[in-house]
Write a structure and sequence with these properties.
6 helices
């Protein structure tokens, strides 16, 4: 992802969707039950406020869970779209018609299917010259992709591979 400011939904949308649901459930349990329990054990006027039937943190817990659920849904639909993208690209013409973001997603999905863990670094903005970071078997590979054919004289000594 890009280097700009990111909110909770953006962060969770970049992770696998079950992570968003787990974070949301844990956050809800902490806010709706854990925080009031902690305040109740402290004694004093706060303990009396949380001893009643109303829980002021319950709504906050539900809001946090809702934000996490939205991030999980975005993550789920992004992953589904990326999987379909690779399945529908049948030739060079369909790949050439893709935008740069979809092209990077396509390459990332191809490496995922080959058993790599893929971190997409450039989809949200400036990527520092690295499009994808691939991980497998303890190795980390930094990659840069171009949708068009260019001649880069300064890259002649770099390792180039065609997959």
């Amino acid at each position: 992802m890009g280097r700009g400011k990111r909110n909770l939904i953006d962060v969770l949308a970049g992770l696998p969707w079950p992570v968003g649901l787990v974070v949301g459930a844990l956050g809800y349990l902490t806010l709706a039950h854990g925080v009031p329990m902690w305040f109740a054990r402290q004694g004093g006027s706060l303990a009396q406020a949380f001893a009643g039937a109303s829980n002021p943190f319950s709504l906050l817990g539900w809001l946090f869970f809702g934000m996490c659920a939205i991030g999980a849904l975005v993550s789920f639909f992004n992953a589904r779209r990326t999987r379909q993208l690779l399945d529908t690209c049948t030739g060079l013409e369909s790949i050439a018609a893709l935008g740069w973001r979809d092209f990077e997603r396509l390459v990332g999905e191809a490496f995922r299917r080959r058993g790599y863990s893929v971190e997409e670094t450039g989809l949200g903005g400036a990527d520092g010259g690295i499009d994808l970071i691939l991980r497998r078997d303890g190795r980390r590979i930094f990659t840069k992709y171009k949708q068009k054919i260019y001649d880069f004289p300064h890259c002649q000594n770099a390792e180039k591979r065609c997959f």
